[in-house]
Design brief:
Blueprint lengths: L1 H17 L8 E3 L5 E5 L13 E4 L12 H14 L7 H5 L2 H14 L3 E5 L2 H6 L2 H4 L5 E5 L4 H8 L4 E5 L4 H13 L22 E6 L1 E2 L4 E2 L2 H11 L2 E5 L24 E5 L10 E5 L1 H10 L1 H4 L6 H39 L11 E7 L1 H13 L2 E2 L1 E3 L9 E6 L6 H17 L5
Parallel strand pairs: 3-14, 5-6, 5-7, 7-10, 10-11
Antiparallel strand pairs: 1-2, 2-3, 4-12, 8-9, 11-12, 13-16, 15-16
Helix pairs in contact: 2-12, 4-12, 8-9, 12-14
Bound molecules: pyridoxal-5'-phosphate (PLP).
The site of pyridoxal-5'-phosphate has 14 residues, from helix 5.
């Protein structure tokens, strides 16, 4: 029967191409790092001088751990100690001591009561909402939340409220509206006082800790204020912030974990680079996830080698990898100030290494990224629908592994191409 469908699929593929949304995937040869060797069937990936290596400003390798020898060693030790894998889901015979150790360490690191690991943060998020929210409950989601939060919410039957990005008055309006609905037997703001008996619909506010296209930090503290006022739970996905933000690298939730009920994050960005995710927070919620979350009940446990490397990162963060975070801040400031001096308009709040170079025009963003790449700098243009129409940009991601030379070369390339394209004077 496939012959009947073949043309349909071909048509879809053509639509993607014609719409300018085709992804020509480059293939890394060797390790991820600040200098990479990348090959592409369709595009010549050598720079204009025939150079093979490109400076990489695209990865979420914030602390530079993706090619760390120490992490590779910890992963190898994990294989030696625990074998290649569990060949099982957690609740049958897939929970190893390394999972327990890692979960304890996650709780200790972030200051939560408990934690549960998943094979990715995507799984943590898709396994969260339908497990703890049912019909009649309400979920409030920032409009710029990550795809995995959006998909997770799609799986649950709670009523959906979407608030404008980091817009606290919009969020409050919607919390008010939800509290006044008949599903809520005790409408209006929460009565004051300890242990007041109330039984509103269960309400949960969900936000990214850092919005990845803009490099802007969520207003977690203000969200918690509203949550307290209206009796809602708070969930923060700190995938871009864990290990990156906060004086001690605990993320956008640093100092707020007594008020944030649920934290999800990844070991695939700053805290490693291979993969793995987790949900941490209130003990009862984590217990419910162990019992009912479908992405843990019906999916293999986190490979022990990754769990062992993740444990190594958390155990050594304060004495070792927090220095990488300090270097990362220095690098971010260095790059931003050089780019601003040249007259580029940068997005972001300057606290996060995601540095969007705002170009607005879709064609200019794509053309500029192509020219930069010929100068030996690997960056990508982001256009609609990944970012709003007319807000095209090149997203530069800084890493602790970048040297001043790397950044100088990149700034020079931006200067040259920017002048050539009359973006700066
Ligand atoms: C990257 C990211 C994820 C996905 O993490 P994985 O562990 O790679 O699945 C989820 N949420 C946010 C906000 C992210 O940035």
């Amino acid at each position: 029967m496939y012959k009947n469908y073949k043309q349909q699929f071909q048509g879809e593929l053509k639509e993607i191409k014609d719409g300018g949304m085709w992804k020509d995937v480059g293939v890394l040869e060797g390790k991820q790092g600040s200098e990479i060797l990348i090959k592409n069937d369709k595009i010549d990936m050598t720079d204009k001088n025939g150079g093979q290596k490109l400076l990489n400003f695209c990865a979420n390798n914030y602390l530079g751990l993706a090619s760390s020898e120490e992490l590779a060693k910890a992963a190898k030790e994990g294989v030696d100690k625990y074998g290649f894998g569990e060949a099982s889901v957690r609740f049958i015979v897939g929970t190893s001591t390394i999972h327990k150790d890692l979960e304890k360490e996650i709780s200790k690191f972030f200051g939560t009561e408990d934690a549960i690991t998943y094979t990715s943060c995507f799984d943590a998020n898709t396994g969260l909402f339908e497990t703890i929210l049912k019909e009649g409950d309400a979920i409030f989601s920032d409009e710029l939340n990550h795809a995995s939060i959006i998909d997770g919410i799609r799986l649950c039957k709670a009523e959906r409220f979407r608030f404008k990005n980091s817009d606290m008055s919009d969020l409050e309006d919607q919390l008010k509206e939800a509290s006044l609905r008949p599903e809520n037997p005790h409408p209006g703001p929460l009565p004051k006082g300890e242990g007041v008996a109330y039984k509103p619909r269960r309400m949960l506010i969900a936000t990214d800790g850092v919005f990845s296209m803009d490099g802007i930090t969520a207003k977690v503290s203000e969200i918690c204020d509203l949550a307290e006022k209206y009796g809602a739970l708070v969930m923060v996905d700190d995938s871009h912030a864990s290990g990156v933000l906060g004086k001690t690298g605990r993320g956008s939730v640093e100092g707020l974990m007594d008020r944030v009920d649920i934290l999800t994050s990844t070991f695939g960005k700053a805290l490693g680079g291979a993969g793995g995710g987790f949900t941490a927070g209130r003990k009862e919620i984590i217990d419910v996830l162990h019992q009912r979350s479908r992405t843990t009940l019906f999916s293999n446990s986190l490979p022990p080698m990754i769990a062992n490397a993740a444990l190594f990162v958390l155990q050594n963060y304060d004495k070792k990898f927090n220095h990488n975070r300090e270097q990362l801040i220095e690098n971010t400031n260095y790059f931003r100030s050089a780019m601003e001096k040249l007259g580029f308009h940068l997005g972001g709040d300057g606290k996060h290494p995601i540095t969007p170079v705002m170009l607005m025009d879709e064609k200019i963003a794509v053309e500029m990224a192509g020219k930069l790449f010929k100068e030996g700098v690997y960056v990508r243009g982001f256009t609609y629908p990944v970012v709003p129409k007319g807000k095209a940009r090149i997203r530069v991601q800084i890493s602790a592994a970048h040297t001043n030379e790397h950044m100088d070369k990149t700034v020079r390339a931006f200067e040259q191409v920017g002048k050539e394209m009359a973006i700066i004077k």
